[in-house]
Specification:
The chain is an alpha+beta fold. It contains eleven helices and 19 strands. The protein has a six-stranded mixed β-sheet, sandwiched between helices. Strands 13-12-11-17-18 form a five-stranded mixed β-sheet, with helices on both faces. It has a three-stranded antiparallel β-sheet with strand order 5-4-6. Helix 2 crosses helix 3, helix 4 crosses helix 10 and helix 7 crosses helix 9.
Length: 346
């Protein structure tokens, strides 16, 4: 029996994607965090998730593509609640899906009081009978199978769409933390800027993301450096449709600045860690989670830079939602994190 009286739901409410974990079923849904609404009424919802995201860069005048969650924070509580409800019904397969469910929703570190209240309001409005919030690094560590009950430190890094969460965890709590409002989306933006500056081609965020997934890498590879793909976009000078060739080496070069920013934040977090826990991290290393950690070679790049062992689970993009679901399903685990302040009941 879980913390509440019905099945548990873990909800990773991310800026780029929403991921849902159901007790005894695992991850059952991953959808883009988008709503397509009428321009005249922001609550007249025309499409949700990937159906809405397909309109990115193709928006007619009478509709608006909304992102209710930005940089890890809820911007519009009503829209966020509508998105939670829609995805829950899609995942569970019935209307008012959360009425008999217990739900644990993830939250980034460093939320302001106003942002925290907006998140609470969205979760309450979504209709869960009982609900709670959990810090994303705690949920990610649980989902990745990291032991947190020992008096030993581990560095947990969660690379989301708009945020990167860096936390030193020990004894079911957070010993040190740093939250950066830049995530995997910064990789895409860096590619957009590079292609325009170096190739004279204007591309959209979707194209940049696809390029990152297809040939993006954080480390040099002699085998693939010269491999090229054809990019289609708009000529920056003439405005006409155009194509250019982009190599693996060029995409890697485009990604260097955001990767270095991320590494510098990890160094700062490590330097601000108590000496005893820093010694533990040297031994136990860094656990990577979140969709951004799927970038090829990123774990190696971090390990080489920080001189630390770096690990990632087989499905790092699922760690946060899975951990939230596990916490919802385990009363003792839930109670431990409430005691350390990492879980907030709503």
């Amino acid at each position: 029996m879980g913390v509440f009286n019905a099945g548990g739901v873990g909800f990773d409410l991310g800026s780029s994607n929403v991921t849902i974990y159901l007790e005894n079923e695992g991850v059952v849904l991953r959808e883009a965090s988008y709503l397509l609404t009428s321009a005249d009424d922001s609550m007249d919802i025309l499409a949700v998730g990937r159906d809405a995201r397909q309109m990115l860069g193709r928006i007619p005048r009478d509709v608006v593509l909304e992102t209710p969650v930005s940089e890890g924070a809820v911007g519009d509580a009503d829209q966020a609640a509508a998105m939670i409800q829609a995805f829950s019904e899609r995942a569970i397969g019935k209307r008012r899906a959360l009425e008999k469910s217990r739900m644990v929703v993830t939250m980034p570190q460093g939320l302001t009081r106003v942002e925290l209240e907006a998140l609470k309001s969205a979760v309450r409005t979504a209709g869960a009978r009982r609900a709670a919030l959990v810090y994303s690094p705690i949920a990610a560590a649980v989902g990745a199978g990291v032991s947190l009950s020992e008096p030993k430190g581990v560095m947990q890094v969660v690379i989301g769409g708009d945020t990167t969460e860096i936390a030193v965890l020990s004894m079911n709590g957070v010993a040190a933390a740093r939250s950066i409002r830049r995530g995997a989306g910064a990789f895409d933006q860096a590619i957009v800027r590079f292609v325009r500056r170096e190739k004279g081609l204007i591309i959209g965020q979707r194209t940049a993301e696809d390029l990152k997934i297809d040939i993006g890498t954080a480390v040099e590879s002699k085998i693939t450096e010269d491999f090229e793909v054809v990019l289609r976009g708009r000529d920056a000078r003439t405005g006409k449709p155009s194509t250019v060739n982009v190599s693996v080496a060029e995409v890697r070069k485009a990604l260097q600045d955001p990767i270095e920013d991320m590494l510098e934040s990890m160094r700062e977090a490590f330097e601000n860690t108590p000496p005893e826990l820093a010694a533990d991290i040297l031994e136990r290393g860094v656990q990577l989670s979140g969709g951004g950690s799927l970038l090829e070679g990123l774990a190696k790049r971090i390990g080489d830079s920080l001189k630390l062992p770096v690990r990632a689970s087989e499905e790092p993009q699922d760690d946060v939602a899975a951990g939230a679901g596990m916490i919802a399903a385990d009363e003792r685990l839930f109670a431990r994190f409430v005691q350390t302040g990492c879980v907030i009941e709503i």
